[in-house]
Structure formats: C-alpha cells, structure tokens
Write a structure and sequence with these properties.
single chain; 95 residues; alpha+beta; four-stranded antiparallel β-sheet; 4 strands; 42% helix
Length: 95
Amino acid sequence: MIERLDEGARAELAQRLPDWEMVPGRDAIRRRFRFQDFSAAWGFMSRVALLAEAQDHHPEWSNIYNRVDIILTTHDASGLSARDVRMALAIDALL
C-alpha cells in the first residue's frame, strides 16, 4: 500500500521542490516548463517518459508548442506520496 505524505513531509515540499506548486482543489503538485521551441519541449517529454517508465509512476501532462505542464499525484494513494516527490526531483534534475 502506498501512503500519502504526512504533514512533516508536506511542510518540506516548498523547500525541496521550490518550482512546484500545489494544485487548487486537488492533492497534487504541478509545474510549468517553457523551452526554446516545440522540438526542445518534445525532447524533454521523451526524457520524462523514460523516467516515468523506470519509476512506474506516470504524470498527468500536456504540451502546447514550447510549454509542458506536469501534474503529479499518486492515484493509488488518492493524493501526494513520496513517489511524487521522487519523480519531481528526477524531472527537475533533467533541466
């Protein structure tokens, strides 16, 4: 069973993931990425897809030209879990 983040871990999110924000009305985090062009955005998405497969944790995302929006939540836990934090840190490390 995957457990949701406890209050202590939630309090650390702003420090550990300063570029991510809470999604209003959901127990999820999101980040918007902007790139030079569509090709750069698509390349980033490809690298994130490989991470997602390796971690067996897949984001909700969208792409419009040079913008990629990513939302992370753990559906099996009905909210944020350590899996989301690990995935966000791994995504950030790609930049």
